[in-house]
Known about the structure:
Layout: H1 2-24, H2 34-47, E1 50-64, E2 67-80, E3 91-100, E4 103-112, E5 115-122, E6 125-132, H3 137-149, E7 156-162, E8 165-171, H4 172-186, H5 193-202, E9 207-215, E10 218-231, E11 249-258, E12 260-263, E13 278-279
Parallel strand pairs: 6-13
Antiparallel strand pairs: 1-2, 1-11, 1-12, 2-3, 3-4, 4-5, 5-6, 7-8, 8-9, 9-10, 10-11
Helix pairs in contact: 4-5
Amino acid sequence: MKIYKKRFNLALLIVLTVSVALAFSACGKKEKSALEIFKAASKNVQNAKDAKIENGKMTAALDLSGQKMELNADINGQFIKSTTDNPLDFQGFMEVSMNFAGNSNKTKAYMKDGNVYQESTTAAGTTKTKSPIGITQEALKQLTKDGNDMKIDDFVKENSKDGDNIKLTIDANKYIEKAMEKFDSKQKAGVDKAKIEKQLKGFGIKDVLIEAKVKDEKFQSIKYTFEVNIDGGALGGGTAGGAKGGNNKIGMKITIDFPKITLDSGEQIQFPDFKDFKSAPANPAKKTNPLL
């Protein structure tokens, strides 16, 4: 079960990263297409002073080599853009309550003054840690540039609309191929590009369906639906018995739904007293984004 959880955590990280990238990398009197509306709404997200998501839900129906499981998560978040010349002076909050395989946990993450304050609650108790946000201004600028270079136009297979409701089908394989092209120009010593490419292909993501409600070029809601069929051998993992290179499969049907999105409300984040948050143990720096 531990090997499955490790793979699922890795899958979840990539899934969320791709989802956020698709939502925020779009750039921005005849009637507009669904794609044009999506791009305009995405541009307004980028230009907003603050944003808030409420009552978000994520569900993942899993098939772990024949063993059926389900993950459910509730998501709430808030972001306030920096008001100084330093983009890292932003403030943020994210709360995720997750239930998986009979276990539940709640994580709250606050971002302020260049630090991440994390409160994690499980059956074993609550821990509160503090750590640096872990990104430089230069890295943030590069990340923004990379996002702007990944134009959503290049990956849309289909788009349609019905009133304020729009739908887009994204070709995830083309997105990954484009990301790997960018990786070639940024590859650093010690990074195994072939291994990373094999692992990404091993996730088997084909299409991502985006459904959104947009009013006055602002997102009211947005939902992502897609399937992932993970090849255990491609990921280089082992089987439950510990053997390397197992060919066990992990199938997931995932829905990420943000039913209420609010921009420029002017609402402030309610931060707790951080005096109880202790510095997290120092770990060797690890890059989580191979493009940086």
